[in-house]
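Collaborator request, handled under Task 6.
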Amino acid sequence: MAWCAVLGQMALSLSNALGRGETVPRALADFFSYFTVTTNVLVALTLTVPMVWPQHRVGAWFRDLRVTWSASAAILVVGIAYHVLLSKINHTQGWGTVTDIGLHYLVPPLYAVYWVLFADVAGARWRDRALLLSAYPTAYFVYLMARGAVVGRYPYFFVDAGALGLFGAFRNALGILAFHLVVAWLLLRVARRLQRTPATVIAGSPVR
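Structure tokens returned to the collaborator:
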């Protein structure tokens, strides 16, 4: 579902950009400047790469709790932030509505549910991982500011340093990062609760 939503939206974005006379490299650069897109790709990779290369270190990296945990928090933030901040100003139609639903309303909750049910959270501690959980959204913000300074465009109004100033964009990004960490903490709490199965005694032997 994640791959279909990303590739479908990419096809639509490229078609629209070429219709405006833009080049393919510029259209792709604009497309991958969206946190929604990069996060859906990250989710798709955490599910795909370990299946394709289960024994390879690349597969192990995408299967690592630090990666999947950050991806689950980020994709849930994508869904919530889109619904609260962007859904009323983003008018889609046709296939654009289909990909919009996939990217923002289907993949985020489904992946979050998948993570809390099946991630190996044994020994995971939010305080110890908070810095690592911050790495992906922080790297994205740094990239966004650097790119925006060069091309003069920002994909989201709440981090538009041209309109808000660097301080205003940083303040809003810091708020979103704090929300990302709260979501990560909540996901861990839910995962621990759902995965805690009470022992059942059968013929005197505990079965867990």
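The cover message to the collaborator said: "Residues 199-208 have pLDDT under 50 and may be disordered. Residues 81 and 175 are 12 Å apart (CA to CA). Please let us know whether this matches your experimental observations."
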